[in-house]
Design brief:
The complex is a heterodimer of chains A (91) and B (263). Chain A contains three helices and four strands; from the N terminus they run αααββββ. Chain A is an alpha+beta fold. Chain A has a domain of 60 residues. By secondary structure, chain B is α/β, with parallel strands linked by helices. An eight-stranded mixed beta sheet of chain B has the order 3-4-2-5-1-6-7-8, sandwiched between helices. In chain B, α1 crosses α11 and α5 runs parallel beside α6. The radius of gyration of chain B is 18 Å and the shape is globular. About 3% of the residues of chain B have low confidence. The chains are: A alpha+beta (91), B alpha/beta (263).
């Protein structure tokens, strides 16, 4: 946020636009549970080539995250927390 | 070459029917042969906005069920030559028609008209699916409010998912005074958050309420609202028309200011 913006009071139309941008990001990013399940399975399949995964501790979802370099902008992001039991050594 | 345009919004009460009536009137004034189809089965309204409610004999469902020919159900407009209305049924519901039946009917109408304008019901259920089934393109109507713009975004996504392209946005009921005081989003704000091109901005005006009271659309009457609608019609025909300066009550000082590039 610039210093000038700090002193300028936000109008209600500014607030409307900001709220709208946020709500549209999550509206557009939301995908059906079936698609989410497919993404999850595909990620697991790829990773299992290299590591052994603790499937019970798996957490994958789409969330809001601050865009790089600008704390005022947010965008959809795929959040994945995948506990690894051990590495597979193939070679 | 005829074109089928659906007027849609998602949210109710943003002015779809008024927009349909005025665009029909405007296109007829530009010497096009136009039929307006009210696809809001069960909640018929386009007839009263046009002032044709006393002339209805047959309706859309009668035509689809084969009880009459399309030309028997169509009502010629009182004021505009070349403008016709195909009214919705009032005592039936959306399930009386399927998307395939609607498509077949509209394709039949293509032979006789330059423009077929479909007034879509609110919502994204069967009524919406029926209305968009036959459309070549869509005019998405919204007001500069968070709820209406959010629904418009959903509609734009659904239209694209159904392969309907070249859709355009109409920002309706823009209150110039409120915009000036920072209490309403501008048309530019709305266009910025939606991924769609603008085709018109219609300012809020009490004249619209009066016009609906009497059943006489304003397109082409010389007022700012009427001219906004005429400009939309010209843009539908592919003409480049500059946008109106809606802030006509500007003081001399701000006019001089704008000469120097200051708003």
């Amino acid at each position: 946020m610039r210093l000038v913006d700090f002193f300028k009071k936000k109008t209600s139309s500014d607030i409307a636009k900001d709220r709208l941008k946020l709500v549209l990001v999550s509206d557009r990013a939301s995908c059906s549970p079936e698609v989410m399940e497919k993404i999850k399975n595909d990620i697991i399949n790829v990773l299992q080539k290299y590591v052994e995964i603790d499937q019970s501790g798996l957490d994958i979802k789409i969330t809001q995250m601050e865009a790089e370099g600008d704390a005022n902008e947010t965008g959809p992001a795929l959040y994945a927390n995948i506990p690894i039991r051990s590495m597979r050594h193939t070679d | 070459m005829s074109e089928v345009i659906v007027v849609t919004s998602g949210k109710g009460g943003v002015g779809k029917t008024t927009t349909t009536a005025n665009i029909g009137t405007g296109l007829a004034k530009l010497n096009k042969k136009v039929v307006l189809v009210d696809t809001d089965i069960g909640l018929r309204n386009l007839d009263v906005v046009l002032g044709l409610e006393n002339r209805i004999v047959y309706n859309l469902v009668d035509v689809i069920e084969g009880n009459c020919k399309p030309e028997q159900a169509m009502i010629k407009d009182k004021k505009s030559d070349g403008l016709y209305l195909l009214p919705a049924a009032q005592t039936r519901d959306k399930s009386a028609v399927t998307p395939e039946e609607m498509k077949a009917l509209v394709n039949e109408l293509r032979k006789d008209f330059d423009y077929i304008i479909l007034d879509c019901p609110a919502g994204i259920e069967q009524g919406f699916m029926n209305a968009i089934a036959a459309a070549d393109r869509a005019l998405v109507v919204t007001t500069p409010e968070v709820s209406a713009v959010r629904d418009a975004d959903r509609i734009i996504g659904l239209l694209e998912a159904h392969g309907i392209k070249n859709n355009r946005l109409i920002v309706n009921r823009l209150n110039v005074e409120m915009v000036k005081h920072g209490n309403m989003m501008t048309a530019e704000d709305v266009v910025e958050v939606l991924s769609i091109d603008l085709i018109g901005v219609v300012p809020y005006d009490e004249k619209i309420v009066v016009a609906t009271n009497t059943g006489s659309p304003l397109a082409g009457d010389g007022s700012i609202v009427g001219t906004s609608y005429m400009n939309i019609c010209s843009r539908i025909l592919g003409e480049e028309v500059p946008y109106l300066d809606l802030d006509s009550k500007k003081g001399i000082l701000s006019k001089i200011g704008s000469l120097f590039g200051k708003q």
